[in-house]
Amino acid sequence: MFLSSLEQYNPSLISVAVNLHKTGQILPDTYVIDLEALKNNTKKIVNVAKKNNIELLYMTKQLGRNPVIAKTIEEAGIPYSVAVDFREAEMYMENHLHIGNVGNLVQCPRLLVEKILNYGTKYVTVYSISNLKYINDVARKLGIIQKVLLKVIGENDELYPGQVGGLTLKELDNNFDEIVSLKYIQLSGITVFPALLYNHKVNKIEPTSSLKTVNDVKLIFKKHNYPMNVLSLPSATCCDSIPLIKKLGGTEGEPGHGLTGTPPMHAFNKEPEIPAYCYVSEISHNFKKHSYFYAGGFYRRGHLKNALVFENDKEKTASVLPFDDESIDYYLELNQPFKEGSTVITAFRTQIFVTRSSVALVDGITSGKPNLIGIFDSQGRPLPEGMK
């Protein structure tokens, strides 16, 4: 999906990734992350956010919830993270990083609520009145006032399977007085997801049907004479979409793929952010005039279509054949044969935390002094010595 953009805007990353494989520093099924590009992308997004007075919370799950990446992002200007789930929150706490929001996609298990609240998170996103009361009880025990956001769902909102949950408009309205009466939480605002998505037909990021829900919620807050200080409008947060967040009345965005220059629109347009990762593999074998390369990093929504194959000293292009989503990605298939052992480079939309890939962090690519910082697993843990 992003191979053409990678070739145009960050060809040095390709060269470094190929060299790492050919010199035996990384194995196939490894994502190579360009930390310098990541840092520069982050700074660009931060500058646009400051001009529009939009708060940013960074997300790392798509890059394997890696603490080195998180620290790089914080140093580049986004001080707080958004934990996609409680496992990511655990990583942030273990590495003394700053948590900005927990629960917006996956609710906090009750066993971890006290630990997280005691550690400190700017916001907790809550899906139900029951969970809200539980957080209030834990906050009372700790002697704190915890800011919360409510996830609200309208009748016609676009919802992803596996991510369903939140208060209906009726539940919010009927329980509003009880919610704001809880003494150890502070209702700061709401979130919906996804709020913004790229529309390929018109080649731009647009609001989803959830924005009608946002407007309905504003009326509920007004009805109860209560201020909405935070309106989180996540998905597709990047330089291009931040002014739209502002225009829609939003106060917060959550860049994830924006930090690596890989929102869908970046595959078709020159944007301020450049691609900051690629996937490295190797031709394993040939069968019936097709090559098969080692996989493990496939993501079914990644739109993987093309690959570069470095056969001897020549760079060649190939098509990646469609893969059955019901199967395990032991190998992926190319439409023609290549020499076994050749390096394969692809670039597609990923979610590294759901893969079994390794992650190689490289600094100094843009400066012309590439340095392999370390190799990690897909959950952000350094690989044991001798493993790649």
Word description of this protein:
This protein has 388 residues and is α/β, with parallel strands linked by helices. It folds into two domains: 137 residues, Lyase, Ornithine Decarboxylase, Chain A, domain 1 (Beta Barrel), CATH 2.40.37; 176 residues, TIM Barrel. It is 29% helix and 25% strand. The protein has ten helices and 20 strands. The strands form four sheets. Strands 1, 13, 14, 15, 16, 17, 18, 19 and 20 form a nine-stranded mixed β-sheet that branches. Strands 3, 4, 5, 6, 7, 8 and 11 form a seven-stranded parallel β-sheet that branches. It has a two-stranded parallel ribbon with strand order 2-12. α7 links the parallel β5 and β6. α3 packs across α4 and α6 packs across α7.
Summary, kept brief:
This protein is α/β, with parallel strands linked by helices and 388 residues long. It has helices at 3-9, 11-22, 35-52, 67-75, 86-94, 110-119, 129-142, 169-181, 210-223, 242-247, and strands spanning 30-34, 55-56, 81-83, 99-102, 121-126, 146-153, 167-168, 185-191, 196-199, 204-207, 230-232, 252-253, 277-287, 290-294, 306-311, 314-319, 331-333, 343-346, 358-363, 371-376.
Q: Kindly state the number of beta strands.
A: 20
Shape: elongated
- Biggest beta sheet attributes: 9 strands, mixed
CATH first level of the largest domain:
Alpha Beta
- First and last CA, distance: 26 Å
Instruction: Provide the number of structural domains.
Output: 2
CATH architectural name of the largest domain:
Alpha-Beta Barrel
Elements, N to C (H/E): HHEHEHEHEHEHEEHEEEHEHEEEEEEEEE
Mean of pLDDT: 96
Gyration radius, to the nearest Å?
Answer: 22 Å
Would you tell me the structural class of the helices and strands? Answer: alpha/beta
Helix content, binned percent: 25-40%
